[in-house]
Amino acid sequence: MFIKGQPDSLKMKEIILQNNRSHAVDKAELNELIIKAREVYLNNFDNKTWFERSVFINWTCAIADCKYCFLSTKPKYNSLKGTTAIRSVESILAEILISTALGWKIGYITGGLRVESADYLIELLDKISLIAGEKVMMNFGPYSRQLVEKFSPHVSGMGSAVESFDENLHNFICPSKPLKSLLDFLSYLQEFNKNKLITIILGMGEKIKDVDLVIENIRKFEIEKIQLCFLKPQKNTIFSEVPSPDPNYMAYWISRIRIACPAVVIKVALVRSRINDVSLYLQAGANCFSRFMVFSDFGTSYAEQLEEGCRKASRKLVGEFYKLPDIDVGGLVDKLPFNDELKKKILPKAKQYYNKLKK
């Protein structure tokens, strides 16, 4: 039982560990859930799966106090000080260009909070839309109603890492991003009829029964997409020695959510250490995946394992991950609807991304 307020970190860490020890999943129960979840999936989706690139536009944060996050171990962003942690526009656009050319979807743009101005983000989003051929999502929340209204014409939807719907746990983990502000944000998105994305991170002290709370909120806010992630322990945080949960625990959450929310798109974060579990997650009802280190792992054994896992789950994998097509990068850049000065900046960056795939 979490206590209102801000209990000390040692006490909370023990509660988190205690709750995490309750994550064991009965294998027979899981197998039954997966069978049902697969049936629900097939009644609502085709057999395709895809990779969504999470495009980070910075590596800094003006909040920097979420206790699980790598950025919490770094100095807060200060607009009065110079920083190299904000990516150039040409680098971002080059990444979008090569990603779309390889058939990868742009999941969203993201990064640390309260770094770039709204006007800068809108201009960037409009440029990205011209390359991707459609509006994309942004995943920075929470935002005020005024900012949701301002961003609304320029995005397909918006999202935020909710971390947990357990208010006391959430507010301890993310003191500058209280749960109430996130719930208000989801309400504003409903008001403006924008697609809604939430990210839930498993292994940060939630109880296994908290999946019911997530399902309740998916229904309440009519959330179209949920991203499920494992805790990735970061040095110099209270979670540095907290182990990530078992893959069956992730499969349990996926299957429960799929059965209860047939139309929601479920995305899983797929890191190297979990690559062999992709077939399990797809069979449990996941639609797609993120976090695959595609510019490092393209054409490697990790890509082979990814493709094999999709085949094992009887899914057709959209996009290229192993065989690199011959792409005229200069021709792609030349066709962009930008001025010559910007295209000149994008070209070397795009070639750099394409050459990384070659290697």
Keywords:
single chain, 359 residues, alpha/beta, TIM Barrel
Strand-residue proportion: 5-15%
Biggest β-sheet description: 8 strands, parallel, barrel
How are the strands of the largest sheet arranged?
1-2-3-4-5-6-7-8
The poorly predicted ranges are 1-6
In sequence order, what are the helices and strands, one letter per element? HHEHEHEHEHHEHEHEHEHHEHH
Structural category: alpha/beta
DSSP strand count: 9
Number of distinct helices: 14
Helix-residue proportion: 40-55%
| Secondary-structure arrangement, i.e. CATH architecture | Alpha-Beta Barrel
Mean pLDDT equals 94
How far apart lie the N and C ends?
Answer: 51 Å
Q: Give the CATH class.
A: Alpha Beta
Named CATH topology: TIM Barrel
How many whole angstroms does the radius of gyration measure? 20 Å
- Overall geometric form: globular
CATH level-4 homologous superfamily: Aldolase class I
Q: Supply the number of structural domains.
A: 1
What does this structure look like?
The chain has 359 residues and is an alpha/beta fold. It has a single domain, classed as Aldolase class I (TIM Barrel). The protein has 14 helices and 9 strands. It has an 8-stranded parallel beta barrel with strand order 1-2-3-4-5-6-7-8. Helix 3 links the parallel strand 1 (48-56) and strand 2 (105-110). The chain is globular, with a radius of gyration of 20 Å. The termini are far apart.
